[in-house]
Each structure stands twice: as C-alpha cells, then as structure tokens.
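Suppose you are handed a protein chain with no further information: no name, no annotation, nothing but its sequence. What can you learn? This example shows the usual starting point.
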Amino acid sequence: MDLTNSTDVVLNMTWVALNGSATGNSPIQMYALSWDNGIASNNETSIVLAEANITNFTVNGVIGGTTYRFAVRAKNIYGWGNYSSVTIVVPVDKPGKTDTPTLALSPLDATQVQVSWNLPNEHSSPITSYDILFMTSSGSMVYELTRCDGSLPSVVADRSCSVPMATLRNLTLLPRDSLIRAQVRATNARGTGQYSEINTAGATIETEPTNLTVVSIDVPSTTNNATMAVWTALTGSSRGGMNVLITQYEVYWDQSNDTWVSLANTTNLN
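A reasonable first move is to predict its three-dimensional structure. Written in structure tokens, the prediction is:
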C-alpha cells in the first residue's frame, strides 16, 4: 500500500487494483480495507474500514507515533479472496515551521552571539538536524558550520549555538551596528519543515573602538616633572557599536626617543 501525502493525523491509503488472472478471471466488484484500529494487543486486521469499488481510502484522526496494521482484499462474483500481507504504518510527518530565532549576546561570553530557537512541532518524529542560516550584506543566506552546524547532536539537543562576533563580521560583511539576522528549519525522518521567519530584532554587529581624537595636554596641570594628557571619551557607534561600553583606555608614549611603549591602563580620561 502507498502512503503518499499521509501525515501524523491523516493516512491516505492507496493500493493497486487487481488485473489479469489475479482477478480470478472475473471482474472485481469491490475491495475491503481492514485495520486493527491501533490496538496494540490486536495483531489482526479484523476491523473493516471500507467495502467499495475503490483503490484508496483516507483514515482521519489517527494518533501520531501509534502503530497501525492494514490489509486489503478483493471480491468478485464468486466471493472474497484472501487478504493481502499486513502493512504496518506509524503516522508521522515532517516538522512544522520553526519559530523565529532569537539572537543575543551570549550570557557566558559577550564577544559571541548566541542563536536559539524553540522546538518546532515534531509531528511524532524526533528532530534529527537543523539548518541555521545567516543573512549577509548582499541579502543572501549562508551557513556557519564551524560553530552552528545543525547536524551536531549538541546543537540539536540545545537548540542553540554561539558564534564569535569576529566570525560573523567576516561571514556577513555587515557594517557596525547592523542587525544580525538568521533563520532556522528542522529535519526529521519524514523530511524538512519550513524555514522560520527572519528575526527583526536582536544582537547587532560590534567591532573594536575607532581611533580617538588627538590627545591634548592640560597645560595648567603640567609641571617640569609631570605632564597631564587628556582625551575625549568615545561615544555612540565609535565605541565599537551603539551598545558597546568602553572598559578602559591604554595610554602610550614615545619616551622622547620615538620608541612607543604602554604607559598606563585607565578608565579615566586623563
């Protein structure tokens, strides 16, 4: 029997009509489709679903993941023939459409972007893999298989993966502060579901800070033994992104001999 177009709640049963000597050399009047109604203790297909001159029948309301047994037989003017061999069916379907993924800075490492998504409807067949795609600056969708390989058991189980920000910058070629966008779909033994919608909010591309303006000297605070250097704080996107905070400034000097060395690390502006 053919189960094309069946799902985890509907079974479309189709069988091939008898012909030639298989008919008993007498026209077939009807077929009988029988099943066990999914009763585990019933090893016989004793319940008749249909008796008619048909070669297909739709069974509604089956329970996904339940084992069902079917058999069919034919009748001509002389009576009923023997039942076919039993067809065992476990109703399943490909996964449902995955929800829009969430993209956020990883709570474990703020230099990485975590992609996470909800478990889609498995339709009675466990998810075996995911496709995780990122949108580039040109609008194309690409894989990142070093950290977000959706065939890895850990990614399937956690329904998440984390990618370094630097990797995403190189992969997507997006400018700083651009929204990082992705979509996900699931696969099980029956097939592959629909891609999720692409996210419209979440983590954005971040970079290292831009160059500061020229350092100036605070003349009133300068003496023969000490010089106070001051600079303007980076703000907005120049910090490496609108949402990035400057954690410290590193001060260099040339020691009056054109050899530059680090002088101090500070959170101050002088």
